[in-house]
Amino acid sequence: MLYKIEKAIIHDSYHKTLFFSCEKCKDAKPGQFVMVWIPSIDEIPMSLSHIGEKQAITVKKVGEATEALYKMEEGDKIGIRGPYGKGFVEKGKKALFVAGGIGIAALLPLIKKYDGEKHVILAARTKSMLLFEDEIKEIAKLNVATDDGSHGFKGFATDLMKELLKKEDFNIVYTCGPEIMMKKVFDICKENGIDMQASLERYMKCGIGICDSCTINGYRVCKDGPVFDFATLSKMPDFGKWKRNEAGKKIPI
Predict the structure, then answer these.
(1) How distant is the alpha carbon of residue 69 from its chain centre?
(2) Which residue, 150, 168, 219, 237, is most buried by CB atoms nearer than 10 A?
(3) Are the CB atoms for 159 and 153 separated by under 8 Å?
(4) What is the pLDDT of residues 160-200, one digit of tens each?
């Protein structure tokens, strides 16, 4: 169905959040996604960055579809179907959220909902590309990392994670971001005996488990994920190494 964009927030020259009202989406689980149709352009999967009476997607310009979505304004219409997939499962009483770049969009609803002590690592290439920093400060203990050192810790999210684990103990780690980063988070969790869940991204066409374009080692990201737990990730040798392109060809990440 088509939905009107009710509010558009520009974060920077790459990121924008678009709010809409979809009855089916207001009770979505954190980590679930919707298929977004940009008229005359394409249909793409996107995580819900806000869930409730008003929902939202947060887009990063990376190609034709996302650039067209970024240019949309209040009053424009987009197609929404879903929500689809398996979301995050709340566990433990003290959680660490590791977000790389646009990955914070998938984690934000869970950070808001999680009933326990919350620590967040928010990472980006530079200060201007950090998303939802003020919003997160109000609900969690925030740790910021930038590649260039323009704000907070200078280095990668996983470097900051290692430092944080020297001082804090966590029951669970939730992560979303570049897959190479998430694989490093997985390795750190394995070394430290910490449970974890990760939201994976793969090329999707249908979003409902029919086309098989998003498979990774026999698992369909759209249907079996996009959120996978530690045990399942352990069974994915391609995790952090290989993905498939639009033609289904296996290519390195």
Answers:
(1) 17
(2) 219
(3) yes
(4) 999 999 999 999 999 999 999 999 999 999 999 999 999 99
C-alpha torsion sign, points 164, 165, 170, 173: positive
Q: Which residue has the tokens 């088509």?
A: 2
Predicted model pTM: 0.95
Whether residue 178 is preceded by a cis peptide bond, meaning omega within 30 degrees of 0, is no
Do residues 64 and 105 share a domain? no
Are β-strands 172-176 and 94-100 bridged in parallel, bridged antiparallel, or unpaired?
parallel
Q: Write out pLDDT tens, residues 49-87.
A: 999 999 999 999 999 999 999 999 999 999 999 999 999
Q: Do the Cβ atoms of 111 and 251 come closer than 8 Å?
A: no
Same domain, 29 and 104: no
Q: What CATH number should be reported for the domain holding residue 143? A: 3.40.50.80
